[in-house]
C-alpha cells in the first residue's frame, strides 16, 4: 500500500518488484479529487494463481486489508470488496488469512492448478445482540379485509427484547404506512386490518432491543392475486353464510314454536 500527494496533473505511476512484471498506469488528477485504485503485478514464474474473496462470517460483507500469505515474504492483501489474487511461486501448500479483530484461518492448497478459494473469518468478539434476527414468515389474507401474518426470531427469550413493530402500506415506498406494535416476546403473529382486494400490500417488521438497537427484518407482499388464497376466502365466506342461514332459520323456527304454544 502506498500514498502519493501531488498537485493536479497527469501522473505516470510505475510499480516494480523483484520477480514480477512491472505495471505502468497513467492517472489524471483533478483538483479536489482523491484517486484510489488497486494494482496487480504478475510474477515472472508463477506456478499457480489463486483468487477468491474473504468475508465476515456473521454479516457476509467483504473484508478489506486481509493478509493472505504463504510465508513472511510471499503475501497479498484483499481489496476494498474483499477480493484477492495470490500468485504461488514456490509450491505453497498452505495459505493463511489474517486480519486484526478476526480469528485467522489456514487453508490447505492441495494442487498446483489455478483455483478459487473463498474464506469467511470469524470476529474475535461478537456481542449477543449482533446475532439477533427477525423474519416474517407465513401470511394469509382472509375475509377480503384482513390478513394473518406470523414471524420468527431468536431473540424472544433474551432480556434485551423490547418490542416488535409491524409496518405495512399499499406502496413499495411505504408512504403513509400503518403500524402495529407488539410488546410481548411470545406473540409472533398478528392480524392486520385494511387489507382489501385489488391492491398489493408491503409488510415489514422491526424488532427493538432495550440497548437502543433496531433490527430490521424482511419485507413480504400480500394480495388476493393468488388463486388458492382467493378460493379459500370464497369457501370461508360461503361457510359463514351457510352458518348464518342455518342459525337464523333455527331462531325463526324456535320463535314460531313458542307462539304456537
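Sequence proposed for the structure above (261 residues):
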Amino acid at each position: 500500500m502506498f500514498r502519493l500527494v501531488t498537485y493536479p496533473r497527469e501522473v505516470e505511476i510505475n510499480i516494480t518488484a523483484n520477480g514480477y512484471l512491472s505495471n505502468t498506469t497513467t492517472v489524471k488528477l483533478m483538483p479536489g479529487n482523491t484517486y484510489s485504485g488497486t494494482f496487480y503485478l504478475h510474477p515472472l514464474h508463477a506456478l499457480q494463481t489463486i483468487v477468491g474473496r474473504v468475508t465476515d462470517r456473521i454479516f457476509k460483507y467483504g473484508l478489506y486489508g486481509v493478509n493472505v500469505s504463504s510465508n513472511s515474504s510471499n503475501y497479498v492483501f484483499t481489496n476494498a470488496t474483499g477480493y484477492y489474487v495470490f500468485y504461488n511461486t514456490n509450491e505453497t501448500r498452505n495459505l493463511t488469512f489474517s486480519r486484526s479483530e478476526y480469528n485467522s484461518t489456514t487453508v490447505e492448497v492441495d494442487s498446483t492448478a489455478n483455483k478459487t478459494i473463498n474464506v469467511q473469518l470469524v470476529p474475535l468478539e461478537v456481542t449477543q445482540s449482533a446475532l439477533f434476527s427477525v423474519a416474517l414468515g407465513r401470511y394469509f389474507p382472509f375475509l377480503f379485509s384482513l390478513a394473518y401474518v406470523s414471524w420468527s426470531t431468536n431473540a424472544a427469550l433474551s432480556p434485551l427484547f423490547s418490542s416488535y413493530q409491524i409496518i405495512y402500506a399499499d406502496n413499495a415506498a411505504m408512504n403513509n404506512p400503518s403500524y402495529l406494535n407488539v410488546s410481548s416476546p411470545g406473540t409472533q403473529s398478528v392480524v392486520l386490518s385494511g387489507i382489501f382486494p385489488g391492491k398489493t400490500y408491503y409488510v415489514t417488521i422491526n424488532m427493538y432491543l432495550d440497548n437502543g438497537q433496531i433490527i430490521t427484518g424482511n419485507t413480504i407482499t400480500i394480495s388476493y392475486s393468488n388463486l388458492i388464497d382467493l378460493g379459500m376466502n370464497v369457501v370461508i365466506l360461503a361457510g359463514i353464510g351457510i352458518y348464518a342461514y342455518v342459525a337464523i332459520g333455527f331462531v325463526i323456527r324456535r320463535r314460531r314454536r313458542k307462539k304456537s304454544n
